[in-house]
């Protein structure tokens, strides 16, 4: 496995494989890898001849009072995990390598970037869309893999690829969970033992809504209340947002695929913000009644 830190070496690695006409898959991450990331890597390896992973904690997607400094980092462990999973190259640039000059050019996905998480994290999706564009321009992969846990991010990235006529197919991978239902996340390691014990309530609340929806409940308020009332029993969890959306309003490509409604939750435990999403019955939202 190659460990690459410069864009020049990355381009050379890519061009060798491109000349050999080997399909290239790409998994962008911020490191502190866990089994959720590895599901993306395994899927990438199954679909492509060459798998490239990037590990870059991108400063431009963090707000001034967010956890950029506290974000977990463990490059040696990340490299070992990637090696064990048969990754061909890991690109782990420093900040100066990715941003040699202050940016004058950014990628802004209108509308999608300012709703939901974009409301709580102004500028976040501009940072994500811009760095993903830079990474996709460097690697020019055939396919790039993103987790459905970050559902809005996946929608934003799909839109960037579509609008900017990129050659890359964007592939969404289902959320990987811990045994107790908590979505695997790099930030989970920052939870205190008590917060970690409480955290599965997020998924339990979402499952209560899933069960109601499966029994035919179509009242958005009642479905969202199922989440709220489960989390109200956990004093260490502050529910930041709970939304039910027709997935097509977030992701125009879903309209074609006729995918279900999506329930999105953001919650804070101490200093850690976690997000999760589950799918509900396609009719969970009546026409035009987004929560
Ligand atoms: N549990 C998971 N299941 C599937 N994909 C995941 C999971 N966790 C992360 N991913 C995906 O891995 C990619 C890299 O994510 P990132 O490095 O930000 O990790 P993360 O665990 O989401 O971290 P964070 O603590 O920022 O939420 C993203 O496409 C993300 O959606
Ligand atoms: C897509 C990404 C690697 C861009 O920095 C990041 O937002 C992430 O890890 O989800
Ligand atoms: N996985 C999303 C990246 C972030 O929270 O900044």
UniProtKB/TrEMBL annotation:
Keywords: Ligase. It comes from the Bacteria. The keyword Ligase applies. This is Pantoate--beta-alanine ligase. It comes from Antarcticirhabdus aurantiaca.
